[in-house]
Amino acid sequence: MENMISVPMKARVDVPLEGEVSRLLPDQVGNVAGAHNSELQQRLLESGGRRDTLGPLKKVYVFWLPGMSCDGCTVSTIGATEPSIEELLTGALPGVPVMVLHHYQFQMESGDHFTLLLEQADAGALDAPYILVYEGSISDEHLTVGAEPWAAKGSLPTWAPADQRQRRSTPEWVRRLAPGAAVTIAIGTCATWGGIPASLGNPTGAMSVMDFLGKDYRSSLGLPVVNVPGCPAIGDDFTEAVTMLLKYMNGQGPVPEFDELGRPAWQFGDTVHLHCPRGAWYEEGNFAREFGGKECLAEIGCWGPVVNCHITERGFINGKGGCMVAGGACIGCMSPGFPDKFTPFYKRPPQTTPATTLSRVHGALTKPLRRTTQLERNREPRWRSTTPSGWAPEYDNVTIAHRTFEYFYTRIQYFRSELPGRHEKDEEKYSSGYVVPPEAAYGKEYAAAAGSQSRRGSQARHPSTAGAVASSRRIRDAPSGRSGVVTDVLSEPAR
Ligand code: SF4
Ligand code: SF4
């Protein structure tokens, strides 16, 4: 029940409250609820018991403004699960105020009714603080043709006849609302750094929210612009950052940590390479020649080693997916230089050849050693003479070189360390004198070393393994159980 939404059972969103504005302005087209979203959430608050939640804040408005965007960040945010948008909208998280979302795709109301809340925020007439979210890059409205904005939201003043109204560009709304916002959040690479609309050529003069507001901008809580990049941003990155900010605003948590570019520091501290499921292929020098392979994608265009992103750790939706998991190379979509500084896509980045050459050298040295060690550690101690597998008779065909390598490897592995198994130590005896069943069955030899027990057991079942007797005797006669086991394991002749 990972995504379960916990709405208090007594909440009633179908019962109007007194003085709802939508009752006064009943001419909305297509509004099946007959109420504003903010009114529906107020009904939830009034009837749902959320007034009892921790902290002084019961609700916070979130104004989501679209600039020059593809709506991809909206889509990915809808898919967020940790936490989900629904959990934020219903106040299901303890200590987190209800999020009253004002979003162009989710609103019940339209036209002037939609613009009303924005006007109230601009006039400082809201009954709760607000967060401003901007999706898409901000256009330079000085470059528009015929005074029609590149991106707009509503027309003002609402009381004037239609021919006397003026379209309000989204940059203007940002100019009006950002100073009074508790926090301004740029979501997606277009809003955080400029993104695709701001790539070379840039006919609209597109820029990021930081570029637009300037480095001296501070929200009413004293925070610079918070940036959650990505093309699109990972939905969970956004909802998680908003949740932590809401907790902070509500006095239920510390101010979240952001890095020098305003990104949530815990999300963007590592490169995507560090958590990539293909990282070990890179380390052993195995590289895909074409997409569809399981190996590292560095030589067919992956920028992962130099891009700060944690999609390989978090996944994209519900912990699943993500570029390399789904077979894609990193094209740097979370980075400020995207897209121009990462083109041409799917061409080997310049730093790749020296790095992958070194990986190949490293892999050529380490892979044979690892495979030898792996072969030995893929064997039960009981299988020193034979492996009872009908699947692969050649499994036991280990070479002299392998035995020699394993001899030194095991010496190093157990140097100044305790060997596994039972040894002749007083502290390993039961003080009551109890004797464990294997020791009762095999006598003191069992206590000498685990290997002797297994060999004795094997011998008992397979009398034909005559060499086992001599081997067992060697263990018994060894000066200490420890060296006896090592000697025995390593001196087994290759078969
Ligand atoms: S696919 Fe990319 S991110 Fe993954 S290991 Fe290779 S270079 Fe690194
Ligand atoms: S791995 Fe690269 S392309 Fe994929 S989301 Fe992260 S930054 Fe963007």
Number of helices: 19
Strand arrangement in the largest pleated sheet = 2-1-3-6-7
What percentage of amino acids are in beta strands?
5-15%
Bound small molecules, by name, code or SMILES, are: iron/sulfur cluster
What is the structural class? Answer: alpha/beta
Instruction: Supply the CATH class of the largest domain.
Output: Alpha Beta
Cα-based radius of gyration, to the nearest Å: 33 Å
**CATH T-level topology of the largest domain:** Rossmann fold
For CATH, the homologous superfamily of the largest domain is named as NADH:ubiquinone oxidoreductase-like, 20kDa subunit
N-end to C-end Cα span: 55 Å
The sequence of SSEs as H and E is HHEHHEHEEEHEHHEHHHHHHHHHHH
Number of domains: 3
From the 3D coordinates, which CATH architecture of the largest domain would you assign? 3-Layer(aba) Sandwich
Stretches where pLDDT falls below 50 for ≥5 residues? 448-495
Tally of extended strands?
Answer: 7
Oligomer: single chain
Helix content: 25-40%
Shape: elongated
Calculate the mean pLDDT score and round it: 84
Question: What's a quick, concise take on this entry?
Answer:
With 495 residues, the chain is of the alpha/beta class. The protein folds into 3 domains: 21-266, Rossmann fold, CATH 3.40.50.700; 270-378, Cytochrome-c3 hydrogenase, C-terminal domain (Cytochrome-c3 Hydrogenase, Chain A, domain 2); 382-491, no CATH class. The chain has helices spanning 21-24, 37-48, 72-78, 85-90, 111-122, 170-177, 189-192, 209-213, 235-249, 265-268, 279-283, 311-314, 352-377, 400-413, 437-442, 444-448, 450-461, 467-477, 481-491, and strands at 59-66, 98-103, 130-135, 152-156, 166-169, 183-187, 226-228.
